[in-house]
Each structure stands twice: as structure tokens, then as C-alpha cells.
Fold each of these.
Amino acid sequence: ADDCANDQGGGIAAGQSDAERAEISRGLLGSPAQMPPKYLYDTLGSKLFESLCLLPEYYPTRTEAAIFRAHRHDIARAAGPGAVLVDLGAGNCAKAESLFGVLAPRHYVAVDISADFLRDALDRLQSCHPDIRMTALGQDFSQGLHLPQEVPADNRLFFYPGSSLGNFGPDDAHRFLSGLRQSGGRQASLLLGVDLVKEPEVLNAAYDDALGLTAAFNLNLLRNLNRLLKADFDVRDWTHVAFFNEQKSRIEMHLQARRAVLVRWPGSSRRFAEGERIHTESSYKYTRASLAALLESAGWQPTDFWTDPAGWFAVVHART
Ligand code: AVJ
């Protein structure tokens, strides 16, 4: 099934655990079939994601970076000096590093599911910023964050950029933010980057680009499932579908069967009719009001809201 013998996977901690296989199998057998978006991020998937962030249609990454640049002094004022900066989904740590100059954090805690990638990034970063204490945590924090003793309990600033919150549905987002507030300790604050509701044409283009990078990113999930589950998906049987669901205020990504297919994996199988879909990602879009309501319901008081001139993306600061 897997046509690449050297595929290291990455992204997901080397795993292929029973629990992972059970989760994937359950997702494929569901009606409708669905898959947690974390399985999009094997090594190739992470590279495809990095690449699609450069597309003209995919505005979130560069718009957020522009907001950070334009408002860095306001952000620093809101956060206060000497924070314990906790970077959730740090990846290559570039976004946090761009704020080191103004934030002057006392301690930088980088958390990411991709532990090896993170440790390399942090080693590089530490040599450039010898005065900042740094901790790398290889952790899937989506079900709750676990910080070790060495992380001071006061003045924590949780950094959750890139619209990552958008992958949570409303209930999970509320649970996640409440959990952060509870694990925050004294004087915790939050710096959040979220994507905003806008014209469907702009949203649809961002998730169905002309070059087909987002399609490749989505379809690559099937290669990863072949690797993780030893399934026998033929990528050519499937096509990328993405659209803005206005009623649910979310982009949905699906993989749609181009013809009737039978997919097999050890212990089970599933038939898909032509046109049947696997729901692979939801990306929720907020308004200023819906975001404030979510934060407040989870025990966070929004203090600042920064956006770009077009109002496409928002960076929000909140405190407990
Ligand atoms: C990484 C979840 C923020 O929802 O925009 C990009 C992922 N999916 N293009 C997003 C994604 C398709 C991205 N997040």
C-alpha cells in the first residue's frame, strides 16, 4: 500500500499506536466518515502546509504577521514585561521569535506534537537568545495542557496564533479555553490569532487554491492513513472539496470519492459510493462578537482586539 519505503512520517510522534489505529478506523467507519485534522501533518503534509501558507489566496499567515508587526508595541504593553511565554503548537517557533524583541519573555515554553522537529528549532533559537530560559515540550495539548514544575506559575502568557483555535468546534473550543484558564495560574493572559468571517469567495479561494496545493495537502492524508493503518487508499480515486458553510461559520474540507471504491485495512474495510465524502477538517471563522462571547464564557476577559485594514484576521489579548 505504501509506495514510499523511506517515509518517516514525522508530524505525528513516530507512534502508529493501537490507539491511533483505533481512532482512524473509527473515523473511517463513521457515517459520515471523518478524520481528525492532526493526521494531515506527516512530514510531507507539514511541508505542504508550509508551502500553502505562501499562496496569494491563503491570506491568514501573512495577514497575522502584518498585525503582529503593526501592533507589536501595543501587544507588549498588553502582555506586560517578563512573561512566561507558552507557545501552543510552536512548530518552527518563528512567530514567537518575531515577538521576543518587544515581549522580552523571562521563560519561553514551546509545546508541539512534533517533538523532534521542535527540539531542533529550540536548540537553534536558544543559541540566538542565550538570556531567555527555554523549555521544549513534545505534547498533544488538544485534550489539556500539562506544564512541568520548572515552568513558573505566575505571569503566564499563552500564545495560540495562526487560527489554530479554528480547528475546534464550539464545545471543544470552550473546553480548551476553560482548561487553559484553569491551568494558567495567577495573572495569566492569552494572545490569540483567529480568522474572521468574510465574503465566501475569499474564504473558498483560500481553501481551494488555483495551484492545487491545498488539494495536495488534503489528499496527502490518504497516503498518511495508508502508512499509519496499512490501508489501501488509491489517491487517484479521490478529489478535494472545500467550501464555506455559512450556517456553521466554518470552512469544511472533505475528500470525495470519484467512483465507488472499497478501502481495506487490517481487521476491516469500507465501501464508499461515488460522491461519498470523508470530512477531513473544519476551520471555524469568528466575528469580533462571537470571539468575545466565547472568551468570556470560558473565563477570559478580552482587553484588546487588533485587526488588519480589511478586517480579515484578528489578534486578541485576554486576561483572567
Ligand atoms: C492550521 C488549522 C489554521 O484552518 O486555515 C490550511 C489549516 N487547512 N488550509 C486553517 C489549513 C487548509 C489551517 N490551520
Amino acid sequence: GAAAGREATGRGRAKPRAFDFSALPVMKELQFTAAAGQVMGVDSPFFRVCEGRGAATARIEGADRINFSSYDYLGLNQTGAVLEAAKAAIDRYGVSCSGSRVVGGERPFHAALERALAAIYDAEDAVAMVSGHATNVTTIGSLMGKEDLVLCDELAHNSALEGARLSGATRRSFPHNDLDWVERLLETERSRFGRVLIVVEGLYSMDGDTPDLARLIDIKNAHDCWLMVDEAHALGVLGPTGRGLAEAQGVDPRSVEIWMGTLSKTLASTGGYIAGSSALIQVLKARAPGFVFSVGLSAPLSAAALAALEVMAREPERVARLRDNGLALRAALRARGLDTGLSEGHAVTPVVLGDSPTAAAVAHLALLKGLSAPPILHPAVPERRARLRFFVSSEHTAAHIERAADIVAEAVAEAPEITARLGLS
Ligand code: PMP
């Protein structure tokens, strides 16, 4: 009755109060997106459940699909040696390190993993942390300060931007891969700043292209800057033995001050790392809050990453298969008239589709036809550059690749019927 009515408004069910989470502006955006999906008859493409490993084919939302949505580039998350190493490490050390490495959490496998990571880059040392994202945030956030400048490629990962923001440094992003722009900026503005850090990716995660490392090294040397390369998607992918951008481009990796990478892609684990001079690693291990005040990387995750590095070194044919598959997928998509954007045909290739509703519709149709390739929508990419993104693995077959390209072409042809329901076309 009347009391219940009062209670309903009193609790703000009808009209959320300012401090309710449901009153946050982002909720409006989410509701708008959900409503658009409903009009189109397209389920949300996010949080799709994969029941098992994200292998070349996987059981996703109750059916077997060809899977291009997992970044297990060399199939090491399906490899006995890696899985067994993680299990053996649990038996010996337990699941958790139960403390920060600074106080109580240090274990023998930490140094073993870090030696192996440093060796990839001929670096003096390396440090591993519990998250790739946190590694970028805490490394950039603690190395740079108010007097400094962080120059990020405009397509650099969110974690680098967050680190730059945390640091309090001046931040500038430069047009993607436009090193003339970087050079011009440094010529006029270098002297205004203390330290300058240039941040790029070894292989760009949305577009699948690479920067010119030798030129970056010339520029940072000429202007006395540090260079940081995020190899999240480059390790295991670029170079004849998968050692990343420097190996691929024939550059001495010791010319780069800060190599960053993740354990979560090729290395079939979870975590992040920095490799570089022993002074850099000492500084981070003493002062980076995301390392000092966080638990040590766990035994199974460390052991899996170390075993994955060993398999990668022992079986370079995986890297070769991945390279062939990456080129084959790009060729197959292009042969069907699809726009693969800036992709160089490595393990990451987008199919650029235009607006977000179109990309969502294509992803939906593709899933129904047996292909999982996630849509990347605005605001993750500019609205006119919404896309499907493919992560290729060494374990995909030629048949997976050809079938996937056929499915995308069919889905693109059928998508306008779905988006028309929004009244956009
Ligand atoms: N850097 C790049 C370029 C990435 O793509 C990602 C995430 N995929 C990260 C850093 C963060 O790594 P993680 O997911 O391992 O935390």
C-alpha cells in the first residue's frame, strides 16, 4: 500500500540517487549499447564463455568453434611440458608465495625465470611481476616524474597510458608510428624536460604492425631519451626464434633501455616482466610499488612461463608455423576483399569493418557460423575503425584459416540486414 510505495521511492528505486553506482554516466552508455544490441537481435559479444582451453578450436557458448580469440600464440597453453611444470611447482611450493618477495615471498624459481627472460634480450637482468598491466603502470609510474615527458605512440596499450598518468609527467601521444613527428617534437621541446621516455609496442595489439626500431634508437640516442618497448604481442611471434622485435629487425637489443613483456600471451601464464640493465632492475625491485607491495609471482605461473620459454627455444618450428599461419590468414582475408588495415601478417590481424554496430553484427553472425573472433568496438578503437580482431596460433590448420575467411566474408555480406534494424542504413 502507501507504506510500500513510500519505501520504494525512499530507497530510490524509481530515481537513483547521485551516489548510486547505477547513476554513473557510464551506466547510460551501457544501457544504450544493450538496447542497440536488442534491436538488432545481437547478443552481447563480451564475456563469452569458453569451456576449456582457448585452443585452435574451442567450445564457446555451448558449441565447438574455430577460435581466433585467444592469444596462445605458440599453443603452449596446450603443451604437456608447460602444464606438467606448473603442476610440479604446486606440489613443491604450493600455489601462492604468501608474501611480497621483499619480505618472505622470494623463491628459487623467481631468479630462474628472470635469468631466462633477461637472456631473450641479452640483458643484464629482469624482474617478473604478477600482472602485465600492473608492470607497465608501476614501471612508468615510478620511473618518471613531474619534470619529465612520456611520449607514447597513440596506439600504445592502456597500461602505458595509465603509468604515464600516475607518474605526473607531461604526456604526449604521437601519431601512430610517425617518427618524423617524434623527431620534430624532440628538436623543439627536449630541453624543457628532465628525462624523456618514448613508449612503443613491438607488435601493435589492435593493428598487427611494428615500429622501426633502428630509427627509434637513433632518435632516442640523439635526444638523450629512454626507449621502452612493450613486447606483449611480439615475444614468440617476431624473429626467427621468437625473441621479438629486435631479433626480427636485426637490431642489438642492448640498445633499448626498457624491454617490457607479459607472461600471458606466448608464455601461457600470467604476469609481466621488465628486462634491462642491472641498475634498472635494482631500482624497480626497490621502489616500484606494484612490485614491492604486491605478492611474488606464484610457483605455477613462474614454472609455466619458464617451461614455455624452454619449449619455445627447443621448438622454433612453432614460431615458423605461426609466421606461415599469420601470412596465410591475412592473404585469405584479403583474397575475399576484406580490409586487414595495417596488419603485416604476423599473429595479430584485424578486419576493419567500419561502425561498431556493423562489427558487432559481423561477430554475431560469425559465431553462429562457427567462428570466434571478437569485435573491437568504439571506444577501444575510433568509431569508423571498429573491427574483428584475429589472434593466430601456430596450431591453426590451413582448413581453419580458409574456413574462417569464408565465414567472415559471408557474415559481412549478411550484416546489413541486421544493422538496418537500427535505422542506420
Ligand atoms: N601490454 C599490451 C600491449 C597488452 O596488449 C596487454 C594486455 N593484453 C598488456 C600490456 C597487459 O598485459 P596482461 O594482460 O598480461 O596484464
Amino acid sequence: MIGPDVAGIAERLGLAADTATATGQLAAETGLDVDAAYAAQTALLRRRLDRGERLVGLKMGLTSRAKMAQVGVDEVIWGRLTDVMRVPDGGTVDVGAYIHPRVEPEVAFLLDRLPAPGEPIGDFREAVRAVAPAIELIDSRYADFTFSLPDVIADNTSAASFVIGPWSPVPDGLENLGVLLEIDGRVAQVGSTAAILGDPRRALDEGIRLAGRHGVRLREGWVFLAGAATAAVPLRPGAHVRAVVEKLGTATLRAS
Ligand code: 0L1
Ligand code: MG
């Protein structure tokens, strides 16, 4: 049996991102399943690498109930981060470069020495050199931000851009830190790092396990976005966004 046209799907999603133009869902019409969707995500990454981008990390998606409920998909997923997606802390993004951007507050890890595939993380402080507050800017390439599980995986889990705040050494507890998302000085979302799989450290175990199933091994020096602590909020032109994570500090982004 001939499978879905993974390269064609990646091209369609890549063009949608490059031109900030939404596309229709693809999985139902192409028979895309989860494995083929990760293959399409890899082809989408290849498209970026071929134009000179560098793979710098991995992100987890749908690690909280709030996020799952927001998009109607209830499985933890993962995607790829490249250097071009990174916006400096306090930097500005052009809303017009995206289709329907949303922002969400996250916790980022700077990876250090990771266990061999299949091995559990022994000492978290050996596996993670530093932690930081972060903002993820997501932008589904599908019309109306509506998709199935394989659709969103192929679309690199809606990854678009990200901001990392100041790195700090790993604090004693990460499992119940208060999280705020502020837009223009007003609180837009309130949460806790407990919303991220009960403890964001668990997201790293899941990332190693789930990416490993598709032959992807996390690397020392990579950034790892553990997931959002709250639902995502639409990003409007002119907005000033702050993600505040207790003990870790603040990451900021402006939209033009
Ligand atoms: O980072 C995320 O949790 C996004 C996962 C994909 C679903 C969405 O676009 O919200
Ligand atoms: Mg996210």
C-alpha cells in the first residue's frame, strides 16, 4: 500500500508558515497517522535545515490539561526548535509574519549530560544545567487553529517562535511554582508549574521517551521547552507580553 505523501505534506505546511497563510487539515484526506506525521515533521525540519537553520532543541506540547482542552487533543506531543525561531528576551516579533499567533508561559531547561536512550534520568541536576522562564509563540498552520493529533504533529506541534528569559541554576523544587502570563501589564493567565505533567521535570522524561521512539536523541546544549502552564492567549499587534515564573524570573516579548 502506498502511504501518505510525507514530503508533499511537509511542503504544504512549510509554505503555509513561510507565507503566513492557513491551510486546511491534511490527515483525514491523506491517511496520515501518528508515525507518518512525525516523519512529515522531520521533513519539515529538513526544509529549515536546508536553508541554513540549526536544530537547537526540542519542545513538548499539550503537557497540561488546560492546553489539551483548548485544542481538543489529549496526547502529549513533541516538536523541534531551530535557532531562527528564537527571539531574544525583550525582543519584538511582527504579528503579520504569523497566521494566528498565540503566546503561552513555559519553563525551559538547558540540557546537560543525558542518560543513554531507555535509561531513566538519575540526577536531574546532571541532566539539566539551568532553568529559565520562557514564552512560546505558537501558530497553527491550520485554518481556525483546528486540527487532529496527526495534523498537529506534522505541523511541528504549532511551534513558531520562543523567548528564553535569564537562566538560573536548578532550584530545589520545580513542581509547584506560580506562573503568570501578563499582557500589557494585566494578568491574562494564572497557573502553576504543577500543571505541566504534575512536575515539569516529568516532561523531560517524556521528551526523551517519546522522541526516542522516533529515533531522536536529545543533546547536551539543547534548549528544552517543558510545556505551557496555562492555556495560550492570542497575540495582538502592539502587545507587551511577560511570562513570570516564581523563583525563575521573567521572559518578555513585544509584538509589532
Ligand atoms: O506547545 C503546545 O502545547 C502546542 C501544541 C499544539 C497545540 C496548539 O497549537 O496549541
Ligand atoms: Mg508550548
